[in-house]
Amino acid sequence: MANQTSGPHGPYETEAEARADAARALEVPVTRPYDANADRAARLDARRRYLADALTAAGVETGAYDREICAWLAGWEPETLAVVVGLLERAHAAGRRAACSTTADDDDTEA
């Protein structure tokens, strides 16, 4: 199961940083006895949830084709997915900060 971490992921200066963050976020227990197909499926499912959770947290509505592309993205290396999720989370956080700033500016104008 993908771990929920607080705050946006990144920014990343190196691939190693993204890989380490992805490893923490995408921890998946290994099946016992080891089953390569089940393990591979669990890792892919964790990556799909990682991206889906970030989209949901950002309030992004998805259509069928969006979900198809997200499933495709989930097949990429975990560090690539960590960068995509990090960009999404940071863009959402920046939008929220801008909205709060605009609201505060509007309150000052009304006073």
In short:
The chain is an all-alpha fold and 111 residues long.
Strand content: under 5%
Largest sheet entry: none
When the domains are counted, the total is: 1
Structural class computed from helices and strand pairing: mainly alpha
Shape: elongated
Number of distinct helices: 4
Instruction: Determine the N-to-C terminus distance.
Output: 49 Å
What gyration radius follows from the Cα positions, in whole Å? Answer: 17 Å
Query: Topology as H/E string?
Result: HHHH
Features:
disordered N terminus; elongated
Report on the structure:
The chain is 69% helix and 0% strand. It has 111 residues and is mainly alpha-helical. The protein has one domain. It is elongated and about 65 Å long. The termini are far apart.
What is the topological layout?
Layout: H1 15-25, H2 36-57, H3 64-74, H4 78-110
